[in-house]
Write a structure and sequence with these properties.
The protein has about 325 residues and is mainly α. Helix content is about 75%, strand content about 0%. A two-stranded antiparallel sheet has the order 1-2.
């Protein structure tokens, strides 16, 4: 899609202006490093797209879009520290390339830089954007804590899990869409529908991410396959597999998810086999489709052109068919 390239290039140009290496270099080099890794840049693209589709110059949304991208990368630095992850987008994670303290400090600086970007807007928009950003940022932290808590809990339900990924991932996509609508002065109804579209797409996106973590190609996915299994994360796949399994398989899952072996090869293979034989894999793919459809139903309520609705439908469809 040419539009995506247009948004991405504008964001990159703006990022190069704003995110620069200065003294102390040990603080700013890791920031430049992680944002230079690129990734999908899904959130800022949604902000620019949303603003554009509500008939406003998308470049007006660049500060808000970059704020989301910086916040997202801040959360990734800290996620990788908590997960002890060696790779991010196929490259060394920040705390691996530098050290733990540098990762924490650089992440903190990214969060402050994100807030500074809202100062580009007039008072009313600044207030709306900052209020949404603060609420969303706190929910992301809550979602991350739920994620950590789930590793040592054996009673995590599907409802618990959906709430966790809603907070940890989906609300940020909802905020991305709504910020574009705010910058474009869209109606309150359109702002809320934009938010709910992004939020449901975000849940589908995270479920797809969980699926790719187990069944993706490590060369294209850019992360260690089976990382969630190694970290004993109770994902949708795990919960469904546990629900659907016989007592003997439940015991195996419980045992494996209480261990962190030095060589996780056997653990990963055994768990993936149970995911497949229990039907959890198929149920996960079905749930991805369900949330994508929910998002698309909300999309139809937006006061944007049919052509732009079609572009967002295509965007969501490509997102759910991704391999990375």
């Amino acid at each position: 899609m040419l539009e995506i390239e247009k948004y991405s290039q504008s964001l990159q140009n703006y990022l190069d202006e704003v995110v620069i290496i200065k003294e102390p270099k040990q603080l700013y080099e890791p920031i430049k490093y992680i944002v230079a890794l690129g990734g999908k840049r899904l959130r800022p693209v949604l902000t620019l797209m949303s603003c554009d589709f509500f008939n406003t110059d998308f470049k007006k949304a660049l500060p808000a879009a970059l704020a989301l991208e910086l916040f997202h990368n801040f959360s990734l630095i800290h996620d990788d520290i908590m997960d002890e992850a060696p790779l991010r987008r196929g490259k060394e994670t920040v705390h691996q390339k530098w050290d733990l303290n540098t990762g924490i400090l650089s992440g903190d600086a990214m969060l402050i830089l994100a807030y500074q970007l809202f100062e580009e807007y007039e008072p009313n928009k600044f207030k709306d954007l900052a209020k949404l950003f603060s609420k969303t940022a706190l929910q992301v932290c809550e979602g991350q804590q739920y994620d950590v808590d789930f590793e040592t809990r054996n009673d995590v339900t599907i409802t618990d899990y959906i709430k966790m990924i809603d907070y940890k991932t989906a609300v940020l996509l909802g905020a991305a869409m709504k910020m574009g609508a705010i910058v474009a002065n869209a109606s309150e109804e359109c702002r809320e529908n934009s938010y709910e579209f992004g939020r449901n797409l975000g849940i589908a996106f995270q479920l797809q991410d969980d699926y790719l973590d187990c069944f993706g190609n490590p060369e294209t996915f850019g992360k260690q396959i089976g990382g969630d299994i190694i970290a004993n994360k109770k994902t949708f796949l795990y919960i469904k597999a546990y629900q659907n399994s016989r007592d003997s398989e439940k015991e195996i899952l419980e045992k494996l998810f209480s261990e962190k072996p030095e060589d996780p090869t056997h653990k990963i293979k055994t768990v993936l086999d149970i995911y497949n034989t229990s039907g959890a894999t198929k149920e996960t793919l079905k749930e991805i489709t369900n949330y994508t459809q929910k998002a698309n139903e909300i999309l139809m309520k937006l006061d944007i052109s049919e052509e732009n609705k079609e572009k967002l439908l295509t965007f969501g469809d490509k997102l759910m068919k991704r391999k990375v």
